[in-house]
Amino acid sequence: MRLYSLSVLYKGDPKVHLLKAAYDVSTFSFFQRSSVQEFMTFTSQLIAERSALGSRASVKEQEYLCHVYVRSDGLAGVVIADNEYPQRVCFTLLDKVLDEFSRQVSKMDWLSGSPATISYSALDGYLSTYQVHISGT
């Protein structure tokens, strides 16, 4: 059971943009890592873009299961995991991350922010905590 990525995005007009993300691509070979990370970023944006405001969904993409939660204010979160990772835990994580993010990052920054300009460092910690929490390692 693995988590590969955790992303926070903003679903504005006309498209979705990435605000912050964390990745765990350590299980892939060194030469695959950047393309896998690119795929996960692209997939997260695409799924958030296709999801309605106020919705939750789980979408199978290749060998991954992508869990998306788009809040009614346009803030969205996407977790990419393997097929065995429990769906309920993914949505609990998304709830927690989006609530915390919306408290710590001004809504003004959602509109024009990018991973380089948003200061929110908790994603890597959440990704590793939930990795360890489930796998027991």
**CATH architecture group name:** 2-Layer Sandwich
CATH topology (fold) name: Beta-Lactamase
Query: What is the subunit arrangement here?
Result: single chain
Largest sheet strand order = 2-1-5-4-3
Chain-averaged pLDDT? 93
* Structural shape: globular
| SS summary, helix count | 4
Estimated structural class? alpha+beta
Q: What Rg, in angstroms, do the CA atoms define?
A: 14 Å
- CATH top-level class: Alpha Beta
CATH 4th-level superfamily: Longin domain
Determine the fraction of residues in helical runs and give it as a percent range.
40-55%
Domains (count) = 1
Which regions contain 5 or more consecutive residues with pLDDT less than 50?
none
Pfam families: Longin
GO cellular component, one term: Golgi apparatus
Membrane topology: Lipid-anchor
Keywords: Lipoprotein, Membrane, Methylation, Palmitate, Prenylation, Protein transport, Transport
For this entry, give a set of tags:
about 140 residues; alpha+beta; Beta-Lactamase; five-stranded antiparallel beta sheet; about 40% helix; about 30% strand
